[in-house]
């Protein structure tokens, strides 16, 4: 089922479909993100709204609406970004939105402790995705953007979606049962140095 998480009616339809199937959830993965490259002086209200509607509002309401279906002892994984820690030229909207969901996760960790629900943020760095490719090709990106990014990653390469997925599976599993409230970076070391 296709769902635009920036639209609450789409989220309601998703929840209704899950309820119709009489499903309970053990895991919620809230993964949403758009990254508009815009210099500060050119940011429009529409760009601000679009970014925060998807990255923050959509993430918040996805969790809120699915929470009643999440079993006690479940796991919530929110996909963040190394951009919440590392500055990028012209990416202030994206970076701020990902920092906001990190703060949201901290509060949820405390709020859901009585239900033993773990809340963690998985923050990828530069990953070989269509979103990253569009950023590299964006008119505001320098010709050396990719080389500049690679020079900041100690492993000297981009990550893969499969590498991020393995960490998500770990955070969802019982093997991480005593990990709660963290932001785990999957970024080749970029955000740590």
Quick description:
The chain is an alpha/beta fold.
Strand order of the largest sheet: 1-2-3-4
Give the rounded overall mean pLDDT. Answer: 92
Can you tell me the CATH superfamily? NAD(P)-binding Rossmann-like Domain
Highest CATH level, the class: Alpha Beta
Quaternary structure? single chain
What is the chain-wise order of helices and strands? Answer: HEHEHEHHHE
Q: In angstroms, what is the radius of gyration?
A: 17 Å
Counting structural domains, the number is 1
> How many distinct helices?
6
Range of strand content: 5-15%
Unreliable sequence segments = none
Task: Tell me about this structure.
- This protein has a single domain, classed as Rossmann fold.
- The protein is built from six helices and four strands.
- It has a four-stranded parallel sheet, with helices on both faces.
List the helices and strands and how they pair.
Elements: H1 8-20, E1 25-30, H2 45-66, E2 70-79, H3 92-111, E3 118-124, H4 130-137, H5 145-151, H6 161-172, E4 183-186
Helix pairs in contact: 1-2, 2-3
Supply the key terms.
alpha/beta; Rossmann fold; 193 residues; single chain
């Amino acid at each position: 089922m296709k769902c635009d998480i920036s639209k609450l009616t789409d989220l309601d339809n998703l929840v209704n479909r899950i309820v119709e199937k009489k499903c309970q959830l053990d895991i919620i993965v809230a993964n949403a993100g758009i990254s508009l490259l815009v210099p500060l002086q050119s940011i429009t209200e529409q760009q601000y709204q679009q970014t925060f509607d998807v990255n923050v509002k959509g993430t918040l309401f996805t969790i809120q609406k699915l929470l009643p279906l999440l079993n006690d002892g479940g796991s919530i994984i929110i996909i963040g970004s190394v951009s919440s820690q590392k500055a990028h030229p012209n990416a202030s909207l994206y970076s701020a939105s990902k920092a906001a969901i990190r703060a949201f996760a901290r509060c949820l960790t405390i709020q859901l402790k009585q239900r033993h629900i773990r809340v963690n943020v998985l923050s990828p760095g530069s990953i070989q995705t269509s979103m990253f490719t569009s950023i590299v090709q964006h008119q505001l990106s320098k010709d050396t953007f990719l080389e500049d990014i690679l020079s900041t990653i100690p492993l000297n390469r981009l990550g893969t979606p499969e590498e991020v997925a393995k960490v998500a599976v770990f955070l969802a599993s019982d093997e991480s049962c005593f990990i709660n409230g963290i932001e785990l970076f999957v970024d080749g070391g970029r955000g740590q140095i």
